[in-house]
Write a structure and sequence with these properties.
The complex is a heterodimer. In chain A, 24% of the residues lie in helices and 28% in strands. Chain A is an alpha/beta fold. The two termini of chain A are 24 Å apart. Classes of the chains: A alpha/beta, B alpha/beta.
Chain lengths: 307, 106
C-alpha cells in the first residue's frame, strides 16, 4: 500500500466521501480511512426521504455505495482501517493505523460521531441483548414483541416508525413534553396506532439477566418510579463527536466539538474538518455532504499554495 | 484461502464439530451495516488459511442458532474455538479488527 498521499480523509461517511469526490477530481492522491463501514451512521436508517434530488425515498446504504463508487471513479483509494494517532510530521501529517502508518500533506477530518449512551445501570451489560442503537439492524429480533425507543429527535421517531412494522407495541419514551423531530415524522408517529408516547420520562436503568426484561423509568413531573416490562430498548438520544484524535491539535469545546468558520480550516496548518465533528451540526446527510465539499475546496486551496 | 459458507439451524452443529476455529457472522437482509461489512469479511476470509472457517447465519432463517447464542443485535461476530464461544464483536467492524480479535482468542 502506498505510504505518501496528498490528502488523507479520516472518516468514510457522507462528509468524508463528498470531500473524497472533490479531492479526486482535483487530481490529488487521496486516501479515505474508515474504521467501520463506508457510508457512516446514516446506513443504520431504513430510508432517507429528505436528501435533495430524489423524489422517491431512497435506501441510505444505496446512496452511500454510490458515493463510494463515485469517489473511486476519480481515483480515490478507500481503505477499511482505524486511525490510532494523528501526528505532525514536518510540514505534513502522519496517520497511524493498525500495524502501519501513512504520510499526507493535508488531512480532512470527518470522523463523525458516536451513539450517546445514558450511562445508567444495566445498559452496558445488556447492549446487544435487547438494548440496541440500530433499529434497522435489530428489528427482526422483535417481531410481535414490546419495545421502547428512547429519544425525541428525527432518529428516535424514524426508528419507532420502522419498529412499528415488526413489534406488537412501540413506546416512545421522551424526557420532554414535545419532540424536536421533523413535523412530518411527528405527524406519522401520532397517527400510528402501534406507537404510544410516554412524555416527561427518563430511564433510570435496564433490567434483565441473559436479556433485557424491563426498564426502570421515572416520570419527571410526578417523580413516580415504575418498572415496565420490555423485550427491547432502542437508544436514540443523540451522539457525541468522535474527536479524541484531535484533542492535542485543535481547540475543542466542552462537549468535544470543533468550532470553525465556513472555510472549515482549523488552527492546525493543513488540517480541515467536516461533518458531525463540528459544533452546531444538525445531523443531516445534505449538511455533511456540503461540508465535505467545502472542506475539500479549502484543502485544495491550501495544497495549491504548496505546489 | 477460505470461503464464507452459509450455515443454518440444521447444519450449524456439524460445522462446530468439524472445525477447530469458527467465526460466525449473524446477519439479516434488512441490516444495512451487515451488507456493507460483507466485503471486509470476504477480504478477511480470503486472506486466511482454511484453519479458520467463516460462517454466515441469516437470523431470519435460523432463529434457533441466534437464540442459542443470545444474539439480539446485528451484525454480531462470534468466535468459537473447539466448540466454545471465546469472544464476540457487536456492530460493524473492519478486517483488522476481526484479525485482532482472532489473535486474542489464539
Amino acid at each position: 500500500m502506498e505510504k505518501n498521499w496528498d490528502v488523507i480523509i479520516i472518516g468514510g461517511g457522507p462528509a468524508g466521501l463528498a470531500a473524497a469526490i472533490y479531492c479526486g477530481r482535483a487530481l490529488r492522491k487521496t486516501l479515505v480511512l474508515e474504521k467501520k463501514v463506508f457510508g457512516g451512521q446514516i446506513v443504520n436508517a431504513d430510508i432517507i426521504e429528505n436528501y435533495p434530488g430524489f423524489a422517491e425515498p431512497i435506501i441510505p446504504a444505496d446512496l452511500m455505495e454510490q458515493m463510494s463508487k463515485q469517489s473511486e471513479r476519480y481515483g480515490v483509494t478507500l481503505e477499511n482501517d482505524e486511525v490510532s494517532a494523528l501526528l505532525r510530521e514536518g510540514d505534513g501529517w502522519k496517520v497511524a493505523v493498525y500495524r502501519d502508518a501513512y504520510l499526507a500533506k493535508a488531512i480532512i477530518y470527518a470522523a463523525g460521531s458516536l451513539s450517546r449512551f445514558l450511562g445508567v445501570k444495566g445498559e452496558k451489560e445488556l447492549l446487544g441483548r435487547g438494548v440496541s442503537v440500530c433499529a434497522t439492524c435489530d428489528a427482526p429480533f422483535f417481531i410481535k414483541k414490546k419495545v421502547a425507543v428512547l429519544g425525541g429527535g428525527d432518529t428516535a421517531l424514524s426508528e419507532a416508525l420502522h419498529l412499528s412494522k415488526f413489534a406488537s407495541a412501540v413506546y416512545l419514551i421522551h424526557r420532554r413534553d414535545q419532540f424536536r423531530a421533523e413535523k412530518i415524522l411527528q405527524d406519522r408517529v401520532f397517527r400510528n396506532d402501534k406507537i404510544k408516547i410516554i412524555w416527561d420520562t427518563e430511564v433510570l436503568g435496564f433490567k434483565g439477566e441473559q436479556r433485557l426484561e424491563s426498564l426502570e423509568i421515572r416520570n419527571k413531573k410526578s417523580n413516580g418510579i415504575e418498572v415496565v416490562a420490555f423485550d427491547g430498548a432502542f437508544l436514540a438520544i443523540g451522539t457525541i463527536p468522535n474527536t479524541g484524535l484531535l484533542k492535542d491539535l485543535v481547540k475543542l469545546d466542552d462537549n468535544g466539538y470543533i468550532e470553525t468558520d465556513i472555510s472549515l480550516r482549523t488552527e492546525a496548518k493543513g488540517l480541515f474538518v467536516a461533518g458531525e465533528v463540528i459544533k452546531g451540526n444538525r445531523r443531516q446527510v445534505a449538511i455533511s455532504v456540503g461540508m465535505g465539499v467545502q472542506a475539500s475546496l479549502s484543502c485544495e486551496e491550501y495544497l495549491a499554495s504548496l505546489d | 484461502m477460505a470461503e464464507i459458507i452459509s450455515a443454518n439451524d440444521l447444519n450449524f452443529e456439524s460445522f462446530i464439530k468439524t472445525n477447530r476455529m469458527i467465526i460466525v457472522d449473524f446477519w439479516a437482509p434488512t441490516c444495512m451495516p451487515c451488507r456493507l461489512m460483507e466485503p471486509g469479511l470476504e477480504k478477511f476470509a480470503a486472506s486466511h488459511p482454511e484453519s479458520v472457517q467463516v460462517l454466515k447465519v441469516n437470523v431470519n432463517e435460523s432463529p434457533k442458532t441466534s437464540s442459542r447464542f443470545f444474539v439480539r443485535t446485528l451484525p454480531t461476530l462470534l468466535f468459537i474455538k473447539d466448540g466454545q464461544v471465546k469472544t464476540q464483536i457487536v456492530g460493524a467492524v473492519n478486517p483488522n479488527q476481526i484479525e485482532k480479535a482472532l489473535s486474542e482468542v489464539g
